[in-house]
Amino acid sequence: MTMKFGVIGTGALGVDHMRRIQQTLNGGEVVAVTDINPEAAKQAVANWGLDAQVFPDDRTLLAEGNVDAIVITSWGPAHKASVLAGIEAGKYVFCEKPLATTAEDCLSIVEAEMKHGKRLVQVGFMRRYDSGYIKLKEAIENKWIGEPLMIRAAHRNPEVGDSYLTNMAITDTLIHEIDVLHWLVNDDYKAVQVVYPKKTKYASGHLQDPQIITLKTASGIIITAEVFVNCQYGYDIQCEVIGEEGIVALPEVQSVTFRKDAKLGVNLLMDWKQRFIEAYDVELQDFIDSIQKTGEPGGPTSWDGYIAAVTADACVKAQASGEWEPVTLKEKPEFYRTNR
Ligand code: NAP
């Protein structure tokens, strides 16, 4: 049965997910759309030639749109209200990060979902669907490198605009490492610290760039993650897991090697949208397939959204204090423990 989607927020990613559902994936169609700017929603529908109705807001879309699921791609502060409205209406919810902008708001979603009685929500942490990270996880779980002891990660962008603030290195950028790295080693964060190396001349006056974030897990794994958002040379995601018996690392992005002008080399990506393009496809296809097979989405849960929010809060605190800051999570409810 085709899953009928309503899309809330038709900006860059909303439109991309509309294209994805309509043209690339199997088993879904976009039938309803809303954006705070109705003209943008109408334009998106027209651009893709969709047979979709435009609604004035999320609540009307949920009440009248005849949808099975919503995709939330509005801006972060609006996510909580749309997720809660989706749960209240008993619809499946695919919410782009962040699930909500505070840990408390994430918990209110967790509580609403548990009260509903089955999982409805998946958070858009697409790196878990990237084939490179999946291979790293397999190597770790098969004990191929023994126990993991350390992880070295880097998240580098060529440049960012003036509106990018120091805390966004955590809330917008590191947030993906926060999610994928604890998933990789199946461990919880316990404490975090942030230090600032020498600042690049390419960062605007108010921005600390680069930053080194250290995350310590419950079992003692130390993760050092570099965020460097004005690195100039490309969009570059690195991850190396150092174990007792060996090391595994993310593969480099596939690109032809060239020999030209007395050089031997490969081109790097400049645009982040290209790096995980397949992972975006696979995550949303999995959302559709899991629901059709099991009645629940199978990807990152509301609880994962909560973990990311608590950890990001601790990192932002550590940016200001320069000290180790604890990551204090509530006990994971049974509801989110089982793979159902
Ligand atoms: P964007 O281009 O700014 O799009 C957001 C859209 O939502 C805009 O059209 C905005 O309208 C609209 N909007 C804002 N509040 C709304 C509300 N209450 N109801 C309906 N529409 C509303 O941003 P984006 O890059 O698409 O990002 C969207 C979300 O995806 C963000 O949460 C972002 O963090 C996340 N994201 C995730 C990834 C990833 O790698 N998974 C990558 C990029 C973005 P106005 O422009 O008029 O405000």
TrEMBL record:
GO biological process, one term: inositol catabolic process
Catalytically driven reaction(s): 1D-chiro-inositol + NAD(+) = scyllo-inosine + NADH + H(+); myo-inositol + NAD(+) = scyllo-inosose + NADH + H(+)
Pathway note: Polyol metabolism; myo-inositol degradation into acetyl-CoA; acetyl-CoA from myo-inositol: step 1/7
Occurrences of domain Gfo/Idh/MocA-like oxidoreductase C-terminal (ranges): 137-328
Domain Gfo/Idh/MocA-like oxidoreductase N-terminal: 3-125
Enzyme Commission code: 1.1.1.18, 1.1.1.369
GO molecular function annotation: inositol 2-dehydrogenase (NAD+) activity; nucleotide binding
Keywords: NAD, Oxidoreductase
Pfam families per record: GFO_IDH_MocA, GFO_IDH_MocA_C
Protein family according to the UniProt entry: Belongs to the Gfo/Idh/MocA family.
Self-association state and partner proteins as the record states: Homotetramer.
Record function comment: Involved in the oxidation of myo-inositol (MI) and D-chiro-inositol (DCI) to 2-keto-myo-inositol (2KMI or 2-inosose) and 1-keto-D-chiro-inositol (1KDCI), respectively.
Protein name: Inositol 2-dehydrogenase/D-chiro-inositol 3-dehydrogenase
